[in-house]
Amino acid sequence: MKLLARREHSCAELEQKLSRAGDAAAAAAVVEELRRSGLASDRRFAESYIRAHAERVGAGRLRQALRGKGVDAEIVDGSLADAALPDELARARAIWQRKFGSTPVDRKEWAKQARFLQGRGFSGETIHRLLRAPEDES
Question: Do 30 and 15 share a structural domain?
Fold first, then answer.
């Protein structure tokens, strides 16, 4: 209960943390009981994680991070679809503006900015649209 009081955790995270402290079978049973009672929910965890991180990273990175935390792909996709996020291009533009703020002047600068955005989890299409015409709203 102390773990859940601090922040939401995925069921896989809870099971991993509890099994470090003791028996793995007992940890799995406790997590299953928490899941049945509604105290632990992968869907709620995914929604919370997306709200907390969406303004700094793209959908690809959110998806990868949630899958790495043991959340089922179906839950991740559903949570991303349900989240009221600004479109990917608008989020990429805001991050790009804070970091760079000016159009790349040569290929080296373009590649640097593209790598930065790619590392943040934005798709290639979004990166090309942004760096081709960063000031456009389309």
Answer: yes
